[in-house]
Amino acid sequence: MILLLKQAVILIGSLIAAYTDFKTGYIFDKITYPMIAIGIFLNLFEFVQEISIEKFMELFSVGILVFVLGYGMYWLGKIGGGDVKLFTGIALLLPFENGIFPLNIFVLNILIWAGITSLIFYGTYYVLKYARKGIDLKENSEGIKKASGLGILIAFYFFMIYSAGLEKLILVLFFPLSISLVFVALEKGIKKNFFLKKIQVKDMEEDELIAFEFTDKKTIKQLNLGFKGVIEEKEKKELEKTGIKELFVYRNLPKFGPFIFIGVLINLAFPELMINLFI
User: Fold this and answer.
1) What architecture is domain 2-117+254-278?
2) pLDDT-derived band of residue 35, with 50, 70 and 90 as boundaries?
3) Which residues are paired to 210 by β-bridges?
4) Which of 118, 221, 252, 265 allows an S-S link to 259, with CB 3.0 to 4.6 Å?
5) CB under 8 A, 24+ apart: contacts of 271-276
6) Does the structure show a pLDDT above 90 at 228?
């Protein structure tokens, strides 16, 4: 009964999050906080029936780890805060499913399927859109070198998993990874043409993502952000004191929420799929 309740909360919560992210670009706290709260409450209900370190780790370790790692990625500007809270809620509601470790980590499987489907969709969409606009190979020279190096590593990885008898995994990964290599090669041009905006500091929104690639070194030094990739209210106030009037930021970035929901659907509908790929 509790399992069905957790699955229902995950399904409904991720569906609403997918809709709001698609429509507004945000996954709101009023969606993720209740998921987190319900997950904690239900886990505590299970924990008091079997109080032990092992049970605590089983119920809470994945959620804590997801939040810590997710916050680190958010701090670096690699993932949205709403995505982190949504993944944390999912990890607390359903840390593990049937199967062998680590293939039974529910949120990890969702992340994998969300990543694969989003790579295929957004990679294809923006590469074709950029091609119609006109690809500047010189502008993307560094990206092309990076993609070439990654291509060699991926080829070696495919050789290793083929040698291990995991041909099915190659079939699943070949297309999305191939698209991702093209995207990496053209990433700078795609960002410049479709996401790059120059805005006034006073008009900056919450969790603004700084476009360091297109910001001069003097301004970066003035920003004094270190490795931090997002601007929050505290940093915004400090910026206003420096005299910096405007900055390059990334806006209208691809929405990940809908693909998290797709990952949830795939994993709930085919819970043995990931295991079958490795066996």
Assistant:
1) Up-down Bundle (1.20)
2) very high
3) 249
4) 118
5) 271/97, 271/98, 271/99, 272/99, 274/99, 274/103, 274/109, 274/112, 275/99, 275/100, 275/103, 275/104, 276/168
6) no
CA nearest neighbour of 81 among 241, 209, 236: 209
Cβ-defined contacts of 70-78 (< 8 Å, 24+): 74/207, 74/230, 75/227, 75/228, 75/229, 75/230, 76/227, 76/228, 76/229, 77/209, 77/210, 77/228, 77/229, 77/230, 78/229
Non-local (6+) Cβ contacts of 203 within 8 A are none
Delimit the domains of the chain by residue range.
2-117+254-278, 118-191, 196-250
Question: Residue 224 pLDDT > 80, yes or no?
Answer: no
pLDDT tens digits, one per residue of 85-138: 999 999 999 999 877 776 789 999 999 999 999 999 999 999 999 999 999 999
Its pTM stands at 0.90
- The alpha carbon of residue 26 and the mean position of all alpha carbons in its chain are separated, in whole angstroms, by 13
pLDDT grade for 279, boundaries at 50, 70 and 90: low
The b-or-e profile of 72-86 (16+ CB within 10 A means b, else e) is: eebbebebbbbbbbb
